[in-house]
């Protein structure tokens, strides 16, 4: 599969999974904001790693664990929904992985704000 096609498929899956989060995740975890930050589909289209981030008050690690458990629980239902919305020879098996990048960026911004540097 060409690189351009894989890139388009990654973007399509990211957008569709973001919409599916509204159905499967948000009602169960209304206190958290779970977002899909990236999707990487394997060249054979049979597997996809879905990177997600979690925003919410409280313990970041606990929120991450709650979101991961729920995503794993809803994985099969989300794959079936994807299969009905996107026509592919194979619907990729979703594997979820936490993406710490947004949390790290927030921390950097906090440190910069604390420095109180003149513009």
Please describe the topology of this protein.
Blueprint: H1 3-24, E1 33-41, E2 47-55, H2 60-73, H3 75-85, E3 93-98, H4 101-115
Parallel strand pairs: 2-3
Antiparallel strand pairs: 1-2
Helix pairs in contact: 1-3
Written account of the structure:
The chain is an alpha+beta fold and 119 residues long. It has a single domain (3-115), classed as GMP Synthetase, Chain A, domain 3 (2-Layer Sandwich). It has helices spanning 3-24, 60-73, 75-85, 101-115; strands at 33-41, 47-55, 93-98. The chain has a three-stranded mixed β-sheet, sandwiched between helices. A hairpin with a 5-residue loop joins strand 1 (33-41) and strand 2. Helix 1 packs across helix 3. The longest helix has 22 residues, at 3-24. The N and C termini lie far apart (48 Å).
List key phrases describing it.
single chain; 119 residues; alpha+beta; GMP Synthetase, Chain A, domain 3; three-stranded mixed β-sheet; globular
Tell me the major beta sheet: 3 strands, mixed
Radius of gyration: 16 Å
Strands side by side in the biggest sheet: 1-2-3
User: What share of residues are in beta strands?
Assistant: 15-25%
- According to CATH, the homologous superfamily is K homology (KH) domain
Short description:
The chain has helices spanning 3-24, 60-73, 75-85, 101-115, and strands at residues 33-41, 47-55, 93-98. The chain is of the alpha+beta class. Helix 1 packs across helix 3.
């Amino acid at each position: 599969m060409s690189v351009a096609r894989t890139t388009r498929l990654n973007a399509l899956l990211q957008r569709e999974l973001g919409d599916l989060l509204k159905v499967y995740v948000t009602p169960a975890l209304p206190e958290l904001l779970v977002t899909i930050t990236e999707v990487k589909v394997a060249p054979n289209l049979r597997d996809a790693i879905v990177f997600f981030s979690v925003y919410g008050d409280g313990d970041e690690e606990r929120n991450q664990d709650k979101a991961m458990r729920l995503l794993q629980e809803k994985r099969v239902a989300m794959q079936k929904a994807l299969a009905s919305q996107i026509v592919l020879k194979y619907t990729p098996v979703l594997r979820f992985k936490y993406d710490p990048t947004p949390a790290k960026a927030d921390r950097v911004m906090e440190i910069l704000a604390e420095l109180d540097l003149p513009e």
